[in-house]
Amino acid sequence: MMRWFILLLLFLGAVVNFADKSIIGLAAAPIMKEFNLSPVEWGLVGSSYYWLYPVTGIFGAALADKYGTKKILAVVMLSWTALQFGVLAIAALPLLIVYRVLLGAFEGPYSPIAYNHADKWFPPKLKGFANSMIVGGGTVGAMIAAPILVSLITIFGWKIAFAILGAVSFVWFLLFQFFTKENPVEVYKEVQKNKKAKIEKLKLKDFLLLLASPTALFTTLAYFSTYILVVWFSVWLPIYLVESIKMSPAQMGYGVMVIGIVSVVIYTGISMLSDYLFKKNQNWRSSRVFVVGGSMIVGALLFASIMIFQNPIWVITALCIAKGLAYTILPIGPTIMINEMRERGGLMTSILTSSGNLAGIVAPLLTGYIISLAGGDKLAGYNLSILFMAGAVFIFGLLFTIFVKPSILKGKDKDQGLDYLESKTS
Asked: What keywords were assigned to this record (predicted)?
């Protein structure tokens, strides 16, 4: 039961993480009015969140490998609490920017540490599913958090709404701190009475060689290419559906919701299929790499098809499937990276999430530039951006399929407690 409670908390943590990111946009109008901000100043506020996000993602994950994922997650959540309550003291633009920089800095480590924590609790046959639930927290947050946050902002004002999110983070901290364990070995200590895992000092040269290996390199590039798509869906999809597909705002809203729901079902289902295949054959290439790579390739082709077939029904259908297929790298990628250096699982997953964060910084600007190349023809501009992203996902999905060859599962001793827990709960 504890593993499922932990997964629920990690899922809810991802929802809070998304809500913390998105509430600034939902509160844009009252904040800009209160501080008399120009669009340029508001753009500075928006981008400041990501200034330290990629760096602290790696640093925080490395600390989690050394001191334990549970402890660092607790520190992270307490930081979110303090910062969201600190909003009550913001009275000018500089403080608002400092708040966003610090919030991004402390939210950066969440995803890689959450993946690593789940990896300790779930056997290989469930790792893909567990990670897909964490990924899904952001998607579900996009559908559930937005209307709730808008209501809170409308009723209580933007500062109180931020503080309420801080209170939610504190409740999460209490539940996670007092009702969970670091790993299954703490639950069944008799499995490893005389064994204490010691993390050897990491040699920079060896680590860089590992990152340059085909498995780590092309897994990271595949993740990066998909995250460009992630950003496009969050930033450009609504306006694309209205301006190019000629949907009404109401139709666009329902379309975005349907795409979100169906895509979660698809990438969760494929993650479960990958887990099932791994359980049957214990083969990383056939159960993980081929499933993810094939999904990315097909997803890229479906995404590209909306340049040709622009009937609204087909566009929504194609985007539902394309998003679900392309996103399979998000839950499975961390599993592959952790396997390459299990004793540094948090650090390895942080490489992936930081590459995604870099895409979050670059992709909106790059997409805007690509669209501008078409001049006044917005449809041609959107199609050009779609072609670029579909091409990137297709190429890196293909390279991922060809070159990624994960090592045979390492760290067997580390998994003994998990194996024991599995025998008790299955």
From this structure: Membrane, Transmembrane, Transmembrane helix, Transport
User: Are residues 81 and 169 in contact, defined by beta-carbon separation less than 8 angstroms?
Assistant: yes
Residue with tokens 């039961």: 1
Contacts of 264 (CB under 8 A, 6+ apart): 136, 139, 140, 324
Model confidence at 142, in pLDDT bands (50, 70, 90)?
Answer: low
Determine contact, residues 350/109, Cβ cutoff 8 Å: yes
Residue carrying the six token digits 């997953």: 349
Q: How far apart are CA 217 and CA 210, in angstroms?
A: 9
Q: pLDDT of 37-80, one tens digit each?
A: 887 787 788 778 878 888 898 899 889 988 999 999 999 999 99
User: Cβ distance 75 to 123 under 8 Å?
Assistant: no
In this predicted structure, what is the pLDDT of residue 34? 93
Same-domain status, 351 and 392: yes
- Decide: 74 and 125 in contact? Cβ < 8 Å: no
6 and 43 inside one domain:
yes
End-to-end CA distance of the chain: 10
Cβ atoms of 22 and 145 within 8 Å: the answer is yes
Query: Using CA atoms, how far apart are residues 209 and 346, in angstroms rounded to an integer?
Result: 18
pLDDT in tens, 193-213: 444 444 556 677 878 888 899
> 251 and 178, same structural domain?
no
Structure tokens at 280: 């049957």
Q: Helical H runs in 282-377?
A: 284, 290-305, 312-326, 329-340, 345-372
What percent of the chain has a predicted confidence (pLDDT) above 90? Answer: 50
Mean pLDDT of the chain: 86
DSSP states of 101-146: HHHHHHHTTHHHHHHHHHHHHS-HHHHHHHHHHHHHHHHHHHHHHH
Domain containing residue 369: CATH number: 1.20.1250.20
Look at residue 420 and tell me if it is in a domain.
no
Return the closest-CA partner of residue 185 out of 424, 419, 412. Answer: 419
Helix (H) or strand (E) run with residue 89 in it? none
Q: Closest Cα partner for 167 from 267, 227, 83?
A: 83
* Same domain membership, residue 311 and residue 173: no
Q: What is the extent of the structural domain holding 248?
A: 204-413
* CA 308 to chain centroid: 30
Q: In degrees to the nearest 10, what's the CA dihedral of 59, 63, 69, 70?
A: -110
